[in-house]
Amino acid sequence: MKVHFIRTGDRRYGVRIERDATPSLVMDPAPGFDPDLPHDMVHFAVEAALGLKSGVFGQIAAGGNAGSFHIGGPDGGDAREHRRAARKQASKGQKLVQAQGRDGELSEIAAFLFDVAWRSGQRPDGPAQRAALGEAERVRATLSADERARIDAVRPQVFEDFERLSQAWRGLRVGEALVLEWPSGQPIG
């Protein structure tokens, strides 16, 4: 699966996903633009490192839409076929979201924890940063000991991935994309 993180404006981005034998998915605009590392790129790196099969990108790889992506257009096919594919995609996506279990929650929690911790080393200390770190400690305390250990074990890899992805992302101009392979996280092209 190829995931395109596209800089669509000065403070906007979109995501396009190409999967074998299924229509492309898009989310544009995507939430959480950041000049260093957009929200969905954080999820991508965290879910890949933790091996989450039911996080956002695991659901999409399994044929769903994670509840937020939609089919990217008829791609030259007829409109009726496009509507049928969209209904099928939405139905499968809804089933996967309902069945995601703890992986979906862990994806959100871990993405938040890693994001706050990484940014605390990137940005100046201030009241907002201290509040975010306090909230992260509160959230971390809700995890089981096994979940905390699992997250701690991949921390160096996630931070290394964040640095690599952030450097590539900051170098993009409007209209350019960073394309990554799921689940390896390796750049394509």
Notes on the protein architecture:
- This protein is an alpha+beta fold and 189 residues long.
- The chain has one domain.
- Helix content is 53%, strand content 15%.
- The protein has 6 helices and 5 strands; from the N terminus they run βββααβααααβ.
- Helix 1 packs across helix 6.
- The radius of gyration is 17 Å and the shape is globular.
- The two termini are 14 Å apart.
- The model has no long low-confidence stretch (mean pLDDT 86).
Keywords for this entry:
five-stranded antiparallel β-sheet; 53% helix; 189 residues
Which sequence of SSEs, written as H and E, runs from N to C? EEEHHEHHHHE
The overall number of domains is: 1
Mean pLDDT: 86
Amount of helix: 40-55%
Sketch the major β-sheet: 5 strands, antiparallel
Gist of the model:
The chain has 189 residues and is an alpha+beta fold. The chain is 53% helix and 15% strand.
Summarize the SSE layout with pairings.
Blueprint: E1 2-9, E2 12-19, E3 22-27, H1 39-50, H2 56-61, E4 70-71, H3 79-99, H4 101-122, H5 127-140, H6 145-170, E5 177-181
